[in-house]
Amino acid sequence: MLAILRKEFNSFLNSPVAYVVLGVFLVATGLFVWVFPDSSVLDYGFADLQTLFNIAPWIFLFLIPALTMRTFAEEKKAGTMELLLTRPLTDGQIIGGKYLACLLLALLALVPTLLYYYSVYQLGNPAGNIDSAATVGSYLGLALLAAVFAAIGVLASALTRDQIVAFLAAVVGCFLVYSGFDSLASVFDGGLAYYIGQLGIAAHYRDLAKGLIDSRDLLYFLSLIAGCLLATRLVLQSRNW
Q: Cα–Cα distance between 183 and 96 in angstroms, integer?
């Protein structure tokens, strides 16, 4: 699996896709956090990074599928999928290596945003006047969100040999899981709306963003990731049916 991980990660770094994705993410978040007057921290008047954590999931919703769309679809189109599957590797190792490479690159995009936290920390009056617990929870939520989106993207790529189809399917899947249940919950009232909302990612992400790291939220994200990766394994195993 580590060999697959190194191969996939190096292939990302040797292609312009990774740099375009990282560049778009940093430029877009930078504009919203520091430049646009309706969302700028400098105009907002409060020392927090809520703007970053509100906009980042929507950017990830498009950028992570752009990373994952080639994982299996490109192998199928190039005719190298059969060669890969004949190697002394299990399906789990192949999926794990490709998935972790995509996730690692997505998490790499978050590292430069730590400068935003440092800047807001220093700009606070007094310095350090920022809710660090909520910030840590929000970063954890973003990391788990990226992990779920990457798992959905890898599954979408395994279902088709066309990268564009894989990208569109992953975007739709990520959107439905992130925002679809919230939209559906708004149709209902009372307890039913609450339980429907809890099926989506957004409700659990909001809890983490408050600095409340609950085992139920962590279990939800891990279960969703495991489910998508197991579904990907079933897709690969279907070649033997």
A: 32
Tens of pLDDT, residue by residue over 134-149, are: 888 889 999 999 999 9
Count other C-beta atoms under 10 Å from residue 66's C-beta: 18
Cβ 159 vs Cβ 166: under 8 Å: yes
Rg (CA), the chain: 19
Number of C-beta neighbours around residue 144 at 10 A: 21
Rounded-to-integer distance, Cα 166 and Cα 70, Å:
8
- Tell me the per-residue pLDDT of 18-77, one tens digit each, with 9 for 90 and over: 888 888 899 999 888 888 878 888 777 677 788 888 899 999 999 999 989 988 888 888
The number of residues in the chain equals: 241
b/e map 28-59, b = 16+ CB within 10 Å: bbbebbbeeeebebeeeeebbbbbbbebbbeb
Q: What is the DSSP letter of 214?
A: -
In three-state secondary structure terms, 165 is: helix
What distance in Å separates the CA atoms of residue 145 and residue 178, rounded to the nearest whole number?
A: 9
What are the extents of the domains in the chain?
A: 1-238
- Which has the closest alpha carbon to 200: 215, 214, 184? 184
